[in-house]
From TrEMBL:
Residues 99-126 form a coiled coil. It comes from the Eukaryota. PANTHER family: DEUTEROSOME ASSEMBLY PROTEIN 1, SARCOMA ANTIGEN NY-SAR-24/CYTOSKELETAL PROTEIN SOJO. One of its GO terms (cellular component) is deuterosome. It comes from Mesembrinibis cayennensis. The lineage of its organism: Eukaryota, Metazoa, Chordata, Craniata, Vertebrata. This is DEUP1 protein. Keywords: Coiled coil, Cytoplasm.
Amino acid sequence: MEAGFSEMRSELQSRDALWRRIQLECQQLHTELLKVREYKDMQEIQIKHQSSCVQLTEQLENKNAELLLLAQSQACQREELNKIRNHVYREEQSHCSEQERMKTEISDLTEELHQKEITIATIMEKASLLERQLKMELEIKDKLLAKQQLLDFQYKVIKSENTHLKEIM
């Protein structure tokens, strides 16, 4: 019996050692399974990451294409803006030169008007002086006319007296 126990013990120890090895292998397999799952998860993450990278790359390419179109559009707009600026600058220059010409013309016309005002004032003074001279001459002529009429009257009176005296004689 002791040999049977010993054999059983040995068998138990052997099975116990086998059980421990099996448990150890199970743990190792479990660890490997975890590693495989981790690796699989990592691969899935990488696949998702790669898919995401592909999507991001496509989006980036689309954005680059949009940016290129915007840059071309901006270049066209800049060119158009420069044309408009040049046109506005030419118009401003034209407007400024027109204003200067008008200022010069207004200045010339103002000077001409001033000269005409001076001429009119001079003419008015001369006209006033001539009017006074005419009035004086008119008064003198009126006096001379009155004197002549008086002299005519006196002449007629004397002539009439002469005629009367001639008749008497």
